[in-house]
Structures are given as C-alpha cells and as structure tokens.
Amino acid sequence: MSAAIRIQQVSKRFGSTQALDRVDLEVQQGEFFGLLGPNGAGKTTLISALAGLVRADAGSLFVMDHDVQGDYRAARRHLGVVPQELVFDPFFTVRESLKIQSGYFGIGDNDDWIDEILENLGLTSKADANMRMLSGGMKRRVLVAQALVHRPPVIVLDEPTAGVDVELRQTLWAFIRRLNEAGHTIVLTTHYLEEAENLCTRIAMLKAGRVVALDTTANLLRRFSAHALRLRTGGTLPAELAREGAESGGWWSIPFDGFDQVEPLLARIRAAGCRIDDLEIGKPDLEEVFVRVMQGQAG
Amino acid sequence: MRHGFSTLLYKEVLRFWKVASQTVAAPVLTALLYLLIFSHVLEGHVKVHGVAYTAFLIPGLVMMSVLQNAFANSSSSLIQSKVTGNIVFVLLPPISYLEFFLAYVLASVVRGVVVGAGVLLATFWFAPLSFAEPLWILVFALMGGAILGSLGVIAGIWADKFDQLAAFQNFLIMPLTFLSGVFYSINSLPPFWQRVSHWNPVFYMIDGFRHGFFGVSDASPWLSLAVAGACLALLTVFTLNLLKRGYKLRA
Lengths: 299, 251
Prior knowledge:
The structure holds two protein chains of two kinds.
Chain A: E1 5-14, E2 17-27, E3 32-36, H1 43-51, E4 58-63, E5 66-67, H2 72-77, E6 79-82, H3 94-104, H4 111-120, H5 136-148, E7 154-158, H6 166-181, E8 185-189, H7 193-199, E9 202-207, E10 210-216, H8 217-224, E11 227-233, H9 239-244, E12 246-248, E13 251-256, H10 262-271, E14 276-282, H11 286-294
Parallel strand pairs in A: 3-8, 3-9, 6-7, 7-8
Antiparallel strand pairs in A: 1-2, 1-4, 4-5, 9-10, 11-13, 11-14, 12-13
Chain B: H1 3-18, H2 20-42, E1 47-48, E2 51-52, H3 53-84, H4 88-91, H5 97-123, H6 134-158, H7 162-178, H8 191-197, H9 201-214, H10 221-245
Antiparallel strand pairs in B: 1-2
C-alpha cells in the first residue's frame, strides 16, 4: 500500500529564513498523524508545499503517490486542506460556497454529500445564510466542510480548533474520527497538545524547519515523559531524591517507571523526616514531551 | 472544457451579478451622465465623420464602459481574494493556470459586454444610431473586453494592496481609455497628439468598434484588428507566464 503522504528532502527558504530544511516524512494511509512545533517551526509551510500553495526549493512531495508538482491535478484531488486563516468568500451563502468548491474539483451533483457534511458539522440551519453573517466558529466549520466536499482520502487540518468553543471542538473531532475510521488519513497541526495526544497515533515535531522527533505517540510519551510523584513538602527533600526529580513552583516532580516504585519512594521521603503537605500522581503528557524535545533533549 | 473552469467562470459572473447595482447599474449611470453633459454642450456644434456628435459619442462611451468594467472585474476580484485570503479556495483545487486565466478573462468579458449593452440601451434613445457593420462591433467588444480583462488579471496579481491597484487604474487604464478618441476624433487633434494617439492601443479598439456602427473610422478596421489582436496575444502570453510561475500566488 502506497503512503498517503511522502515528503522527501524538502527544503524551502524565504529570504534569510530557512523555513524547511531537508524534511523527510511519510504518513501511511489511515493514520491520524500529528504535526507539532512552535510558531515558525515550518508546519504551515510544509502543509502549503503539500497543497501546492508553496513551491519547494528542493525535494519532492507526493500525495497518494502523486507528485504535487508534476501530477498536481491528481495530487490535489486526493487532498483536502483546512487552512489556518479564517477565510471566506463574502459574496456567497454556505451552500453556494460548498457547491462552487465541489465544482472546482469537477463534481457537478454533490448535494447529498454536502447535506451530510452540513449535518455532521452542525451547519444545516445555516446552509442558506451568507458567509458574512456567520460567527467565527461557524465560519471555521464551513472551512472544514469546504475541504471535504470532494471526499479526499487525505485530510490536512492546520490548527482547526484555534479560538473555537468546546462544542465545535467536540463536534469536529467526532466527525474527523469517523472519517478516520472510514479510512481517511488525517494530518493535524495544533497547539492544543492534549488534542494531539488523544487523537494522533503518530507525531512529528518540527523545530526551525527540521523534524526533531518522529514516533508513535505512545513511544514519545514513554521516551520523554513518565509517571511522576508530584508533591509539596514541609521540609527539604533528601539530596539523592532531589537529584532524581525537579522542582517547579513549590512542587517536586519525581519520575518513576512502575507503580511498585511509589511505596519505596514514599518510604524514602518519610525516612528522611520530610513532611508531605500535598501529593498527586502525574501522568505522562505530551506537553512535557514537547518541551523536552524543543529544548533539544531528543534522543 | 473542464468543470473547474466552468465553475470558476460561473463563480466570477455570479460574484459581480450579486452586486449588480455597483458593478452594472453604476457604470451605466456614469456613462449616461457623460452623454447628457457632453451632448448638451457640443450637439449642434460638432460633427465627426459627418455624424452628429451625440451619435458619435455613444459607441465611444459603450466601448469605454466595456473596457473599464472588464478591467475592474478581474482586477478587483483577484485583489479582494488575495487580501481576504480566500484565493486559496481557487488555488487548492486541480484548476490549471490556463483554466484560471480563461475563467477570469471570460468573466471580465461578460461583465464588460453586460455593462456595454446597458449603456447602449440607456443611451441609444438620445440619437439615431446605425449598425453598419455589426460584426466589427462584436469582434472589438469581445477583444477589447479580453484585453482589459487580461490587464486586470495582471494588475490583480501584481498589486498587494488596494491603493496599488487604484494607482494602476488611475494612472494607466483611465488615461489610456479617456485619451483614446472616446469623446473626439483624433483627426481633430494637432499632428503631434495624433501621432501620440496612434501609440495608444485603446484608440484602435474604440475606433474599430465605432467603425461597426458608422462604417467610417479614423483608422482602417483591419489595422485596428491587427493592433488589438497583437495586444491580446502579447498580454495572454505574458499573463499565462505569470500564472505558470505562480507569481505572487504560489510562493
């Protein structure tokens, strides 16, 4: 089975900024893939290169084995992109926008699928409203709908939940999950790391145009984050325990691999005569992974 | 022809039609005002090629409206799409640069012809008009619309801001159309300005168009056709090259 997305040695420079630096990446069909990185890391440039909005200086990109430059018609037919910017055409209604977008992809009669998308994104009641009259959240839903009109096997969402309410997030993710279960490949960029952790099976992290981490979400969590005993103490933590952990805002965090290590850890604290004022067990989280990878601790 | 092209053409026509009061009615009214004022001042005093001034003026105003509105359509659509960012809706689908070009230019021709027909309908009550060689009327209206539509595509792609587009319109398109013999025969000009006018391609478009009405003109309609054809070919090649390279559209 061919890869949904294949990116080979892609570089792109804007003036003095190296936006992408020899990026290699493959996303398999059916994956829910996360593309993470701080602002300016190159995520949007990479997506734009994939969509043909930006031309790479070097390297090649393929969508379902179709070269995005040489075979751009097929590549674009297989790709649906939800842009990051909240853009809309103020001249048209929601339904007109979707019908026009379908026409661009060569689909004449698309009413049934448009109705289904509208229903799934909670837009049915707004179908005949002019785009100008919609709230920001509703406009964002229409952007998602526009990316889906041609039933693309590969769907790229560039920060689709930036600045939108909880209800839309839940509606959106439920719909995107269903599409993923139906076989669509999903690539997601987001600053909400919790979303990425819950949704993505594999994650690439970009920094200054380079892929600095690429692994399954589970492996990344295992490698860069762990369960940790988080506690506030009334006294000074023994030196050997302090070396194992880290202090932040009055809370000590001491990582451990298995729950059988919790009791011995507590026993050591107790033996040192240190009073525990507050205690919790922290789970591994992607935010910690992200921070550590971005600080250059990638292994 | 591919569905992407026909949809983009339909979208572009629908776009200007939805705001027809601004894109059709307003330019028709402007042309009517020109006619009322100039014919009031000059009718009875001036005859051109043996034709009463008001009758002479009408085809010029019609063609000027065709040209200016063809330019306005593609240029304003593109700059608006670029500034608001919704140009991505056209750039993401599998639409070729040739389809892109043809759709924007043909929509411009449609707008130009619709406004031109509106001006003709609103003004032909004011003077007896003949349609001596109607094929020339059609040929020059379509070619003129396509030429200015292509120029509009170039301006819309080149301009990053509305004021840059306004500069293009005010300092290039307006002088070229106003100083092209819309309001006068260039034979009435001093020799120097006659020579200058012959370097203005818009003069040939208006002169050829007017020839279709009266069967007489300052230049041969065949010469005008050759100039207009050369301009269209040149602009088409230039615009297609810009689009192929993705100039200011695909970084």
